[in-house]
Amino acid sequence: MWRGCHLHTLSLAGTSFDSVPESPPAFAATLRTLSIAQSSSLSSVKMLPRFARLRSLRVHWLPSEAVAAELSRTLPNLESLRNLSLHSVQLCPLRSQRMRALW
């Protein structure tokens, strides 16, 4: 289903990557913008490092503290990330200067 897909923008609202049959999905190399909203799945956050060209991440309301904690640990490792938008998300303190500059 995803083979040969050159996806640049993806929005996940109330869903996750749990239903994507491939790990990582074929579009992982081309995805540049990702929006995650109302997701309580760790797979949405754990998949982030696989998106090598991800430049923009928008996150809106993560209802799970475990997911927010995982996002806090993952963000500093996203080297290609240039834009970060967080709404109604409680993160652990962002110690990295780079992350504070994005946020």
UniProtKB/TrEMBL annotation:
<dbReference type="InterPro" id="IPR032675">
    <property type="entry name" value="LRR_dom_sf"/>
</dbReference>
<protein>
    <submittedName>
        <fullName>Uncharacterized protein</fullName>
    </submittedName>
</protein>
